[in-house]
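INFO batch 0412 | record 1 of 1 | parsing
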Amino acid sequence: MKTNLLGAAVLLAFSFIACNNQNKPHQEAEKAATNEEQIAADMKSFISLFEIPAADISRAITFYEAILGIDIEKMEIPGMEMGIFPYEGQMVTGVIMKAEGYQPSADGTTMYLDAGNNLQDILDKVEENGGKIILPKTAHADENGFFALFLDTEGNKLGLNSPN
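INFO prediction complete | emitting C-alpha cells
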C-alpha cells in the first residue's frame, strides 16, 4: 500500500513537472511579446504626421506606390485631395496633399523615409517612375547605415535611410 501510494505520488509529481514545463515556452513567449509591446508603446518619435505637397495628386500617389510598394488610399474633401499612406502598425502617419497653400519644393526641411533593410531597392525605382536622384546611396559619416536624396514627381526633395 505504501509502495503504491509512493509510486502514485512520484507519478503525480512527474506529471505536474511535465505539464509545467510544457507551459513554460508558451509563458516565456507570452512574456517576450508583452515586453516587445511595452517597448513599442514606450518608443517615441519627434514626428507624428507628415504631409507631402503635390501639384498632381494622382501622379504623386502613383509614384510613391511604385517606389515603396504600398497602396495609398485616395480621399477627397471639398478643397483638398489626399493620398493617405498605410498607417496600421506605424508610429507616424503620412499624407500626400493637394490643396491651396501646399507647394511642392526642394527647399526647406528634408524628410527621410525608412527604406527597409537596403535603400537601393527603392532608389532603383525612383527615376523609372519619374523622380530624380540627387545623391546616390551614401554611407553616414559614422558608418552606421546609408542615406540617399531624391526629387519626387512633384519636385519635393526627400531622403531614404537604411542600415545596409
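INFO post-check: Residues 49-162 form a domain with the 2,3-Dihydroxybiphenyl 1,2-Dioxygenase; domain 1 fold (CATH 3.10.180.10).
INFO record closed
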